[in-house]
Amino acid sequence: EHGAESTGLQANLLCGSGDMALQSGNFSAALAAYQAARALPAADLSTETQARLVIHLALLLPAPIGSGTLEEAADLLAEAVRVLPLFNQPESEIPTAGELTLAATATLAWLYIRAQNPLAASWLERSQLLVRQQSGPWVRKVKVFLKDLSGELESAQEGYQSLGLHTGAGLIAMRRGEQRLAEGDIRSAQGEFQHASELWSGRKKEPTGLFLARFRLAEIFWQQFDVKEARGTLNAAQELLPQVLPALRSEGRSVLVS
Hints:
Layout: H1 2-23, H2 27-38, H3 47-60, H4 70-83, H5 97-114, H6 120-131, H7 137-149, H8 153-162, H9 166-182, H10 186-200, H11 207-223, H12 227-238, H13 241-251, H14 254-257
Helix pairs in contact: 1-2, 2-3, 3-4, 3-5, 4-5, 5-6, 5-7, 6-7, 7-8, 8-9, 9-10, 10-11, 11-12
């Protein structure tokens, strides 16, 4: 029993370390901490700890710093949802069960959508059902995220902005801009890229997004033969390179498109 308590404490410390690393953007350190915690004897870990671990791992494993594919991450999480008691007990028995179950199903929907797996629709529907049964600030963010996954981009963008989630709103603006470009609507594309640039301007944590938005704007100005604006916008993008290059070197092009 003493050994189980010691293992549980060690797991909590590792999870706490992983959470802090994740919040600070040190994804490699977060992944290492979560993997170390999951390597501990599962019998000595609470079902809540196991659930949190597998959700975090499913999010990080397919990232450039991870070692897994989208399918492997989805399989890992789907198996946990099937067997872990927390995901199959009333919330009254485990207070966090509802929140963690919603987190797991929404993560699975996201993974399957990215992997273009036909299971995506059923997990998205399941997530939408669960989110209607809960409330609170975190749940409001999940509702907006599910709208994003469902392709309700305008509504999702408004939701992200109302919640102060400028990263999500900016990413949608970039996606809408690329769609308008593909349709040949350069003016609308320019508006979307400009909106993304404004959302990310001055945000120290989003230099990569701002770099990409400015770069795409510079391309559009060049296509419109506005050389002065093209050069000015490109120079503004290049000013961000010292902040962007480390991520590009470590993660490659995926840092711009993931």
